[in-house]
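Quick one - inputs below.
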Amino acid sequence: MLSHVGAAAAPEQQQTERRNPGGTFDAAWVDAQRVNRSAVERRVATLAGRRTVKKQWQAAWLLRAIQTIDLTTLAGDDTPGNVQRLCQKALHPVRTDLMEALGVPAGSIQAGAVCVYHALVADAVAALHGSSLPVAAVSTGFPAGQTPQPLKLREIEASVAAGAREIDIVISRRLVLTADWVALHAEVASFRQACGTAHMKTIIATGDLGTLANVSRASMVCMLGGADFIKTSTGKEATNATLAVSLVMLRAIREYHEQTGCRVGFKPAGGIRTARHALDWLILVKEELGDAWLQPHLLRLGASALLTDIERQLEHHVTGSYSAAFRHPMG
Amino acid sequence: MSVAEILETMDYGPAPEAAGPANAWLDAHQRRFGLFIKGEFTAPGTTFESVNPATGAPIARITQASSADVDAAVAAARRAFRPWAQLSGHARARYLYAIARRIQRHSRLFSVLETLDNGKPIRETRDIDVPLMVRHFYHHAGWAQVRDTALPGFEPLGVAGQIIPWNFPLLMLAWKIAPALAAGNTVVLKPAEWTSLTALLFAEICRDAGLPPGVVNIITGDGKVGELIVNHKGVDKIAFTGSTDVGRRIRSATAGSGKRLSLELGGKSPFVVFDTADLDSVVEGIVDAIWFNQGQVCCAGSRLLVQESVADKLLNRLRARMDKLRVGDPLDKSVDIGAIIAPKQLEKIQQLVEQGRSEGATLWQPAWACPKDGYFYPPTLLTDVAPASTVAQVEIFGPVLVSMTFRTPAEAIALANNTRYGLAASVWSEDINVALDAARQIKAGVVWVNCTNQFDAASGFGGYRESGFGREGGKEGLYEYLKPVAAAALVAAPARKAAARKLAAAGGSLPDVDRTPKLFIGGKQVRPDSGYSRTVLDARGKALGEVGAGNRKDIRNAVEAARAADKWAGTSAHARAQILYYLAENLDTRAAEFAQRIGAMTGDARSAAAEVQAAVERLFVFAAWADKYDGAVHHTPQRNVTLAMPEAVGTLALICPDELPLLGLVTLIAPAIAQGNTVIAVPSELHPLASTDFYQVLETSDVPAGVINIVTGARAELAEVLAAHMDVDGLWYFGPQSGRAAVERASCSNLKQLWAGGAHNSNLWQCDAQEFLRHATQIKNIWVPYGA
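Output:
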């Protein structure tokens, strides 16, 4: 494993972080959730004007953003070839000359994980062999989750067997929309059991849930079901990660931590394309949850195009000139 | 700090906004400023320092205006008034539009200069003050355009003297100047002496926009200059925003001068959190309520009232949030709280917090320290506070929140209203029933439901109680700069001398049955406390009867009866209309009797009959309006409904004119009770018998006890007691001009709303119903955001 800069991803810290064991279902957790949409939107709208990072601070924050990226490809035409290319990019996300100019050892910064469909897990694991970088598999009938429950469990087990250390599951949205919280809790708990030692990110698909109150309730139930991360979206819904739904989920994580002492991770995904966006999310997490969560083991940004924009901004920081996409190696 | 190191700490680092252009502007003026009079800058005169509160360093010198300067500014505004008022609305709209555009084009210069001068964070000047200021000028460009059609029958007042505070120098300037100009007035404005620079930059904008000289004059200086403006004979209107103490002095100084007055004063606004609230959003709401502009906000939500069952949870989250607030260089884009305006203010805050602690409050402040240069104070939470604590009652005007708990919604409302102020309130609950119930019952000019410190040009802002009177913004604000076109005055009734001290017999063999008109208090006819009566004379000076000589104790009893009847405001408008119609019906039944009585008193039998019919019709008019004088839903840009609801003022004292003894009484009572006020009327001193006869009409018309109280006696004496009474919310003075000054002076006790009738005062044959209804109500703006 490569030496890492910063407190980020320090493996010992990851190991000392107690995994969320979940708990028995209690309707009080759901009933207590109240969300005022206008107030939530005002908070995220004004936060951009309240906090910013400039100069070397911005460069450092962008490097941290890279460390939290789940570099993702989830397409019907994925092959071992493009997945291997993505894995190389995850291991070497920024050009060596830029890293040197930033005063950070080349090779010390790598992405958070590579995220693929089950069929490509083995190829990704092979491509990342010898590194600490985990492979994440989307699972349980991703993206819609409308496959039989036994198949979902077998899909998780198959991906874990193929070497995936992280499993991104999707919840059955109908259980939220029909307020069947007991069933949702049981579903998530069963997925968690199937994951075993692999970490489970539960995708609640906020774009399908209708209200922010549902986002909050679903977040709570997933954490009670044993989620290691809660994740906004598959990237395939009409609306994906927004700052508003993220704020609601972060507040649910904070409350869960207050009540149980467990830190659950957060992963916004879908639509995060620019460096500016990435900073917005980092700032939101720092403000609402604190520095403890600004770590790859508690924060991931699900993205594919984001990295290129960050590289351009880093080059601009180094040279003072605006950069171009083609100057940075493809993933 | 290196990138690698920052990657360890993940700190924000500095992000300063450049001050270069603002400093260049100051340098271009040699950092010395004169006054802006008649479209030009005067040479700097006697100057004083303007200091950057974030550093304590002087940044410019400002002129202390002399008495001659004030004369010159008022004269310039006076000369400019007629031509400006006679310009078409469209032409005035073009000027206001140009001002809005030019401010927008130089918005960052305004923002940075405001931050340098005031110490508030650049985030606020850039994202809040300046955009709201621009919006205000745009919105009022619209009012200038449509004034003649939207407000027919009104004309501008003349020269407006405007005095603004240091906490929102630009925004308060906009709130004052934009409506004044839109309505057709000219202005002399004095910014606060600590924060004059942006007003001077604004003066340049006016000059460059080609605004006719004299329409806007900006003169700088301390409170002495303000006093010169307030007392200047050439000023028709005073608009003041500032402390309640100074507001009271202005009320007193302008008493009897005939100057129109609007006051936007202090507050101790409640921030009410129910157990059904989104507590995380509440925490952010509190940040916006009390740590906005360092808490130096008249409508700051400085009194946290939280339901006991969620208090610990909320306060724990609040403390965690306070730890994350950033105090420091206000030019830094990542700073939440800037500098306190001046050492004097800082000391006042420190002293009040100390007093709070000595009275038993528990203090909590974040662990981090404030910068040592400049005048900074950390966000502060005081718990273990009771309504009896000093810090729960007085306005601290700093980043200090006091917290108390309540058990039930009713107790929340009682605590919220347990203050002499009534500027704003914030109510938090996801339960619409609980939230709107509280919004309706809290006595405040603005109520924010699930939000706080929301402002917009389309919505009125202003207080109840000692938070002042008048509104700024919206149509309700425009009236503060307009008056109804005057009607011709009636000839004042002559004073009379008593002829023979002998009650007139009807001339027959039997004497009249003796009648004893008493006072009408709490639905009953009661004898005057004094045990004295006053003789009523007829037109020839002969004694016509006697009425009770009411005194201050009768007034006290009448006010208590009126206050006890305040359920009246909650009666449906339909029911109030029914009672007014019934009054009309019963009055009409006795029309001949009333006409005879009035004729006997005034000696004018013909107009007496007409007067009774006019009184009947007037009751019909206000019965009709009772359920039709609606509010509005303002078009504020936020996603919400902003409900502008007319509410009863409360307990109104009605000082009736001598002339038109019945019509005068009815014209004042009818609109007041139609809108839900309870009243204490002092009838015509000269001809009170029409009023005392009216008792029987009241008694037969289902008027609930205490809604209408009538106290006869010496008008000037009774009016002064009413004006000084702290539980009377408003007073309409329709007596002779000579008595006005005393009433206005006495009203300083609780800064009650006064109306001297304007164009209506001297001729109640005419009655602009809307004008009466407007004064019978005050607008409460309730902001209700929505979103699933």
